[in-house]
């Protein structure tokens, strides 16, 4: 079997072909022959099939549950509770103290033109991102206490072991207008 997986496809769009040899894509007849030999797989059963079995690359990072993980290009931290009147330059100046910022993404509210209250900052080096998380979390910035944490963490419980159980934090629904 040959597996053709394009990176911009979703899991539902994986196509499996049963050709024994590579197909040259020289003309429309070859493309039609490839389409006829392909079968699409969708749904939950795909994860249990042999399509996704094999060796995959693993990104850098600590293997412990709850440990920060590197994204494809760098170490990303997520900053919340940012004052709406802060500018990208203010944030860049404050966080560049910890190292070279590779990317800073601040979403603006279309209606007001102000920040939405959160920023993603990417550092090339883990130690720079870690210093920013440790030193800026809880720090006052334009009158508001920043919350800084890793954007990507290894799945699992941070505490580890049976003694580290903690209550799961769930997001509640917005209150109904009549309950205020």
Describe the structure.
With 180 residues, the protein is of the alpha+beta class. It is 18% helix and 22% strand. The protein contains 4 helices and 9 strands; from the N terminus they run ββαβαβαββαβββ. The chain has helices at residues 28-37, 45-48, 88-95, 126-136, and strands spanning 2-4, 15-17, 38-40, 75-80, 101-108, 115-123, 140-141, 144-145, 147-150. The strands form 3 sheets. It has a 4-stranded antiparallel sheet, covered by helices on one side. It has a 3-stranded antiparallel sheet with strand order 1-2-3. The chain has a two-stranded antiparallel sheet with strand order 7-8. β7 and β8 (144-145) form a beta hairpin. It is elongated. The protein starts with a strand and ends in a 30-residue tail after the last strand. Residues 1-14 and 160-166 have low confidence and may be disordered.
């Amino acid at each position: 079997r040959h597996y053709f997986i394009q990176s911009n496809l979703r899991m539902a769009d994986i196509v499996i072909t049963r050709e024994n040899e590579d197909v040259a894509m020289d003309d429309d007849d070859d493309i039609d022959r490839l389409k006829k030999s392909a079968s699409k797989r969708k749904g939950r059963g795909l994860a249990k099939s042999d399509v996704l079995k094999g060796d995959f690359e693993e990104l850098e990072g600590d293997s412990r549950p709850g440990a920060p993980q590197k994204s494809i290009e760098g170490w990303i931290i997520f900053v919340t509770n940012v004052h709406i009147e802060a500018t990208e330059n203010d944030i860049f100046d404050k966080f560049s103290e910890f190292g070279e910022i590779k990317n800073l993404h601040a979403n603006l509210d279309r209606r007001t033109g102000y920040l939405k209250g959160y920023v993603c900052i990417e550092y090339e080096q883990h130690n720079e991102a870690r210093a920013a998380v440790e030193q800026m979390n809880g720090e006052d910035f334009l009158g508001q206490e920043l919350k800084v944490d890793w954007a990507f963490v290894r799945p699992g419980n941070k505490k580890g072991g049976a003694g580290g159980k903690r209550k799961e934090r769930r997001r509640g629904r917005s209150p109904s207008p009549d309950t205020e």
